[in-house]
Automatic annotation (TrEMBL):
This is Transferrin receptor protein 1. Homodimer; disulfide-linked. Residues 386-586 form the Peptidase M28 domain. It comes from Salmo trutta. GO terms for biological process: intracellular iron ion homeostasis; receptor internalization; transferrin transport. Belongs to the peptidase M28 family. M28B subfamily. InterPro entries: PA_dom_sf, PA_domain, Peptidase_M28, Peptidase_M28B, TFR-like_dimer_dom, TFR-like_dimer_dom_sf. Pfam families: PA, Peptidase_M28, TFR_dimer. The gene is LOC115170147. Residues 249-296 form the PA domain.
Length: 771
């Protein structure tokens, strides 16, 4: 600035004995533009300085400066222009010097937002990470029983079935709360096929010609029509139960199977019965004294998730597809009945006695115990809306964790939907407040989702997954399910992708029990926490399609009563009073603990530089399947060589397993030795971690025909479990066994594991091609 003032003074004093050189350069490392200015009144300064003058004057001749003859108008104009230019440049120097310190980039941060992030949503620079202890403490302070109770009152509703006015009213309330918190919000609408009870009259069940009474409950997606056959008790309708009937030489062909609820989903019970050619299935509540004898059951029997009339693709408005339906729709009739109706049937049944262990079942029924089932449910198209709000990340806003809860219910649905929706909204409030007022800056985004049509088989959530499949499994790194998080007390149970096991264990240590005398982890009985807490993922788990269809690591969890499921789910008795009675009036406090557990998982995933997903956890699961397959193949080749030739080697599957194990261990070592300040390295490692679940989806099956494509926890002939079962069928010479088909499935499963290992290894030159 002093040089500039000196030059300006000389110009106005009529001594223009200087030259000015301007050099505006752009820093190639991403720094802001800088202005370099050189002023000199002596040509010796330029030539004899740092050599720049020599570069500009290759002839090395001295500069010749001529003194102007006089102040002509032309010279005056030139001087005025020069003064203005120097003034502007001087201003720029001061401005850019000030801005340079302001725009110093943070470590491991991104300089631009993704296109989906609005400019005014968050600041682009990130302060140093808040200490994790402070993050946990803030969440604990903001999640309170009183705020949860308030949310219960706001979101409780007597009638909010999917696609109804009550459902839409709740959707608007959730949307309003998200907007109130300053979140970016949007909705996602789908026209889906849902099922209503008969428009006039009702479904009907008669036993030996006598009508059993009014049926209000029903099973969505049952086949409609009339079926007649001799009744046969099938216990819980599991394949093991039906196998015991076959062991007694009792055929199921044309029979009406009577089963009780529990153990497996309604859809699996009906599918098992259909495999053995039963004509219909009647389901009654399992013997729980808390339920009244006239309690009606509601549910669905689609062996899948989403709209079964648009399998594998989304139900968007104006989308024209040829008529198609899911292979998971049942081919037989299914209907729920009450405990009193079931007692009437069983009292009149004859036949052989039930197998040992079938508590409460007397006679199995014989050919004279005739039952007629009439189902007249109505299929209708309805608009459902999913509601979303997002807290955007400050470093990688295009990577996000999703927390979701269903909003609809058959009746009041307090445990099935109200508690989950309340926890969802309260978590959104708490974390939004942490960002706005407490200086918490998540590295990645958190998406809060309120789903509709959850009671029909996660229809709303699955349609969203189908609609955005190509981008979701590249950007969504976890899903946390909040459905049914409180259904009893005090046992804690969870089901999840193995990738999340380590994070779950760590989070259990960070959430206190209701008495604050210890943590949830310390309250786990026994020495093996996984055996005590973790349950297998099941088809009716709302997290199931996220893992098996979209390849997104997911977790579901709940507080429950040991050895007793909450009996009111799927009934009109799922009320606030019933749930408070089942938990000794601890619902609000349990909901706070559930919110802290879900919130700390989400916050840990968006807080740290690297995702806390343990890729080595899948090694044991893969090896367990491979050991079983290897043993069965060797046994089959030795005993029945004509079925499987000796040239079929398990070595390729073992090698692929080893490749995954080495890639996972290598990545863990890379993480241990990583520089967390390296932006590209952080993102590269996280992308490789995110690829694991996605790469376990078999690329060789159609998402329309076989939507649950995950080879380890999915469903279908492509899974490792199905390979093991196929070997059993070959050994027993079952009619549906096919050695050539097995070999094809075996090869494709092998390469799916190897492909996952290749992706996890990183760069193409790092791929382990031992196979």
């Amino acid at each position: 600035m002093d040089h500039a003032r000196s030059t300006i003074s000389k110009i106005f004093n009529g001594e223009p004995r200087s030259y000015t050189r301007f050099n505006l350069t752009q820093n190639m490392e991403g720094e802001n533009s800088q202005v370099e200015m050189k002023l000199s009144s002596d040509m010796d300064e330029e030539v004899g300085g740092n050599g720049v003058g020599e570069d500009l004057n290759h002839a090395k001749e001295p500069y010749v400066v001529h003194k102007p003859a006089g102040r002509t108008p032309k010279n005056v104009c030139f001087m005025v222009a020069t003064v203005l230019l120097i003034f502007i440049i001087s201003y720029l120097i001061g401005y850019l010097s000030h801005r340079k310190t302001e725009l110093a980039p943070p470590s491991c941060s991104r300089s631009t937002f993704e296109e989906s992030i609005t400019e005014d949503s968050v600041k682009m620079e990130v302060d140093p990470l808040m200490d994790w202890k402070d993050v946990k403490s803030l969440l604990d302070q903001k999640m309170t029983a009183s705020s949860i109770e308030s949310a219960f009152s706001e979101f409780a509703s007597e009638s909010h079935q999917a696609g109804s006015a009550g459902d839409m009213e709740l959707a608007n309330k959730v949307l309003g709360r998200f907007k109130q918190y300053g979140m970016h919000t949007w909705t996602d609408g789908h026209f889906v096929k849902l099922v209503d009870p008969p428009a006039s009259g009702s479904n009907m069940v008669t036993f030996k010609g006598s009508d059993l009474g009014e049926l209000r409950g029903y099973l969505a997606y049952s086949k409609t029509g009339t079926a007649k056959g001799a009744v046969l008790h099938g216990n819980y309708g599991q394949m093991d139960d039906l196998g015991k009937l076959q062991d007694k030489n009792i055929a199921l062909d044309g029979r009406v199977l009577l089963v009780r609820s529990g153990k497996i989903s309604f859809a699996e019970k009906v599918a098992n019965a259909a495999k053995l050619n039963a004509s219909a299935v009647l389901i009654y509540p399992a013997g729980d004294r808390q339920l009244g004898g006239s309690t009606q059951l509601f549910g669905h029997v689609h062996l899948g998730s989403g709209d079964p009339y648009t399998p594998g693709f989304p139900s968007f408005n104006h989308t024209q597809f040829p008529p198609v339906q899911s292979s998971g729709l049942p081919s037989i009739l299914a209907q729920t009945i009450t405990v009193n109706m079931a007692a009437t049937i069983m009292k009149g049944m004859e036949g052989t006695t039930a197998p040992a262990g079938w508590v409460g079942v007397g006679r199995l029924g014989d050919d004279k115990d005739m039952v007629t089932v009439e189902v007249n449910n109505v299929l209708s198209e309805k608009l459902i809306n999913n509601v979303f709000g997002v807290i955007k990340g400050f470093v990688d806003p295009d990577r996000f964790v999703v927390m979701g809860a269903q909003r609809d219910a058959w009746g009041p649905g307090f445990a099935s939907s109200t508690v989950g929706t309340s926890v969802l909204v309260e978590l959104a409030r708490a974390i939004s407040d942490m960002v706005k007022n407490d200086g918490f800056k998540p590295r990645r985004s958190i998406v809060f989702a309120s789903w509709s049509a959850g009671e029909y088989g996660s229809v709303g959530a699955t349609e969203w997954l189908e609609g955005y499949l190509s981008s979701l499994n590249m950007k969504a790194f976890s899903y946390i399910n909040l459905d049914g998080v409180v259904s009893g007390f005090p046992t804690f149970k969870a089901s999840a992708s193995p990738l999340m096991y380590t994070l779950i264990q760590r989070t259990l240590r960070e959430v206190n029990t209701l008495s604050d005398s210890g943590t949830l982890y310390s309250a786990v009985p026994g020495s093996n926490w996984e055996a005590a807490v973790m349950e297998p993922l099941r088809l009716n788990d709302p997290a199931y399609p996220f893992i098996t269809f979209s390849g997104i690591p997911s977790v579901s969890f709940r507080f429950t009563t040991e050895g007793a499921e909450y009996p009111y789910l799927g009934t009109l008795d799922d009320t606030r009073d019933k749930l408070y009675g089942a938990t000794s009036n601890q619902v609000a406090k349990l909901a706070v603990s559930a919110g802290q557990f879900a919130g700390k998982i989400a916050l840990r995933l968006v807080h740290d530089h690297l995702l806390h997903l343990d890729v080595e956890k899948y090694i044991r699961q893969i090896r367990t399947h491979v050991v079983a397959i290897n043993s069965k193949i060797q046994k089959l080749q030795s005993m029945q060589p004509q079925v499987l030739p000796k040239l079929l080697s398990v070595q390729w599957l073992i090698s692929a397993t080893g490749s995954y194990s080495r890639a996972a261990s290598s990545l863990s070592n890379e993480i241990d030795n990583s520089n967390l300040e390296d932006v590209e390295m952080c993102r590269n490692i996280n992308d490789r971690i995110m690829s694991v679940e996605r790469d376990f989806l078999s690329p060789y099956v159609s998402p329309r025909e076989t939507p649950f494509r995950h080879i380890l926890v999915g469903s279908g002939s492509h899974t490792l479990k199905a390979l093991s079962d196929h070997l059993d069928a070959l050994q027993n010479d079952q009619s549906d066994a096919d050695a050539d088909l097995f070999r094809i499935q075996f090869a494709l499963a092998t390469w799916t594991i190897q492909g996952c290992a290749n992706s996890l290894a990183g760069e193409v030159w790092s791929i382990d091609n031992m196979i």
